[in-house]
Design goal:
single chain; 253 residues; mainly alpha; 0% strand
């Protein structure tokens, strides 16, 4: 057994960490204890189930299976982002288009350049990190678009009354949504190595890989995530902003 990998007994012992979290919540009367317990149990069940499926996928499914799994991740991510930005009409389809564009362009470029392998053992975990980051960015963009349309309706309508097009009238809110989505990842890139050792690098180090090799892989993943968030956010902002107006350029929310 690899001494760097916790045994199942060690995993069971880590449940105590969830208990600490619940204890803090109860003591501070935050009202989140049940949600934490449900989330922890759900995460464990999901990971065990996914681990069993991935074992078969890596050994038998090949590239088609890896792409199918990546598509499922995109659908789940689009559902999550769509719910977060539900004020935007057709938010789930907007999110799916945005995630597909961002993840497809990013992974596609690196696969074509032969920077990453097409084996499911590589595509699935790397794609998962990229989809997760792009989902987070898309969620922020759609949420901010909806909030901007509702909270600043009078401001937007005043700009429309002055003769601006819908795109021009809503442009400040669209740009703000994109900036907000990117700030977290930009800050993460600034502090990587100084404050945090990201997941891909940490996993490789725990697996015994040479630190400089782990760093090369992490740099690729980090830039991949930054690109995916930027592209997904831009597509979500453009499509989402259009959905907020009808053909007569009137706000529909």
């Amino acid at each position: 057994m690899n001494g760097n990998i916790p045994s199942w007994a060690g995993v069971a012992a880590s449940v105590g960490l969830v208990a600490i979290c619940v204890g803090v919540i109860v003591r501070e009367q935050l009202g989140l204890a049940r949600e934490v317990v449900v989330s922890a149990v759900r995460a464990a069940v999901q990971l065990v189930a996914v681990g069993a499926v991935l074992g078969w996928l890596f050994d038998h499914a090949g590239l088609p299976g890896g792409l199918l799994w990546l598509t499922l991740m995109l659908l789940v991510g689009a559902s999550v982002s769509g719910r977060r930005g539900r004020v935007v009409p057709g938010s789930r389809w907007v999110a799916f288009a945005a995630l597909t564009a961002g993840v497809g362009a990013t992974l596609g470029l690196l696969v074509i350049a032969q920077v990453i392998d097409t084996h499911p053992r590589v595509i699935v975990p790397v794609g998962g990190m990229v989809v997760a980051a792009a989902t987070r960015g898309t969620s922020v963009v759609l949420l901010r678009l909806g909030e901007g349309a509702v909270a600043s309706r009078a401001y937007v309508e005043a700009r429309l009354a002055l003769g601006l097009s819908a795109a021009e009238a809503f442009a400040p809110h669209r740009r703000l949504a994109q900036r907000t989505a990117l700030i977290t990842d930009i800050d993460a890139v600034k502090t990587v190595g100084l404050i945090s050792l990201p997941g891909a690098m940490t996993g490789l180090l725990l697996a015994g890989v040479d630190p400089l090799t782990a760093i090369r892989y992490q740099v690729v993943v980090m830039y991949m995530i930054l690109s995916a968030v930027a592209v997904s956010g831009a597509v979500a902002a453009q499509l989402g902003a259009r959905r907020l107006f009808d053909d007569a350029e009137r706000l529909v929310v």
